[in-house]
Every structure is written in structure tokens, then in C-alpha cells.
């Protein structure tokens, strides 16, 4: 009877150890998969963007002045944040500037998203389909007249 008890105890304990190892491997794979998903932009990142945007666009016009852009990008939290000095980064992002030196919130978010994926090694390429989606003819007052890159070129020429 002692042998049978020992054998049963051995089988139960070894079975529990093997099951726990399988559970540990499954949980590790699950946590690794969720980490991989978290490397992209999440809803929290977009919520953070719009919360900080509200601090700069107090009237809710969806526009901020061009001279506020550097401060806005510095105040954002990672992964969208671009620390100061960020002048040359802003220029290279080629963000549209509308009449009155105003910048549209979705244009800035598009540029930040493209920059994020480019830093991760997955640049977003411009395609005809993407261009059709990005058109904003229905926005009231949305009339791009320049961009950050063209503004720098104009300033350089006039110096």
C-alpha cells in the first residue's frame, strides 16, 4: 500500500508540474504577443494627442498657429512626442499650412503617425488610394497654401 500511495503521489505531483509548465509557456507567449501589439500606436496615444490638442486649441477650431507647433510637439507624450529643438524635424515632416498660418489637427496627427512608423522601420508610402482618403474638401476653412518644407524654402530664399 505504501508503494501504491508513493506512485500515486509521484504521478499527481509530476502531472501538476507538467501542467504548470504548459500554462507558464502559454502565458509567456500571450504576454509576448501583447507586447508586440503594443509597439504600435494605441487608442490611448490618440486620446493623449487630442487631450493635449485641447490645451492649444481653446476655441475648438481644430487649428493651431504655426508658431505654436514646436511647443505642441514638445508637450506631447511618447511615442508621438518630438522634443525641442524640433525645428528641422518639423520642416522635414512637410506638414500643410493653411491660410493665416494655421495648421489643421488631422494634418499634424497624420505627419506624427508617419514619423512614428518611419522610426520603427515601417515607413508609410504615399499611394493614390491613400491620397483619396486624405483629401479634406468638406472641412470649413481648410485651404492649404504652403507647408513647413516650403515655408523654410521661402524663408531661406528671402534671406
UniProtKB/TrEMBL annotation:
InterPro entries: EF-hand-dom_pair, EF_hand_dom, Na_channel_asu, VGCC_Ca_Na. Keywords: Ion channel, Ion transport, Membrane, Transmembrane, Transmembrane helix, Transport. The chain crosses the membrane at residues 6-27. Residues 44-79 form the EF-hand domain. The keyword Kinase does not apply. GO terms for cellular component: voltage-gated sodium channel complex. One of its GO terms (molecular function) is voltage-gated sodium channel activity. It comes from the Eukaryota. PANTHER family: SODIUM CHANNEL PROTEIN PARA, VOLTAGE-GATED CATION CHANNEL CALCIUM AND SODIUM. This is Voltage gated sodium channel protein. The lineage of its organism: Eukaryota, Metazoa, Ecdysozoa, Arthropoda, Hexapoda.
Amino acid at each position: 500500500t505504501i508503494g501504491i500511495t508513493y506512485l500515486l503521489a509521484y504521478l499527481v505531483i509530476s502531472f501538476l508540474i507538467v501542467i504548470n509548465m504548459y500554462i507558464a509557456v502559454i502565458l509567456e507567449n500571450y504576454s509576448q504577443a501583447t507586447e508586440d501589439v503594443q509597439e504600435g500606436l494605441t487608442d490611448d496615444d490618440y486620446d493623449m494627442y487630442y487631450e493635449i490638442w485641447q490645451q492649444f486649441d481653446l476655441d475648438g477650431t481644430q487649428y493651431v498657429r504655426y508658431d505654436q507647433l514646436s511647443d505642441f510637439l514638445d508637450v506631447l507624450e511618447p511615442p508621438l512626442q518630438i522634443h525641442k529643438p524640433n525645428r528641422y524635424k518639423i520642416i522635414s515632416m512637410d506638414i500643410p499650412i493653411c491660410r493665416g498660418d494655421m495648421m489643421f489637427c488631422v494634418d499634424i496627427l497624420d505627419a506624427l503617425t508617419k514619423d512614428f512608423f518611419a522610426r520603427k522601420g515601417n515607413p508609410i508610402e504615399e499611394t493614390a488610394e491613400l491620397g483619396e482618403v486624405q483629401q479634406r474638401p468638406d472641412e470649413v476653412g481648410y485651404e492649404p497654401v504652403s507647408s513647413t518644407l516650403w515655408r523654410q524654402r521661402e524663408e531661406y530664399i528671402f534671406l
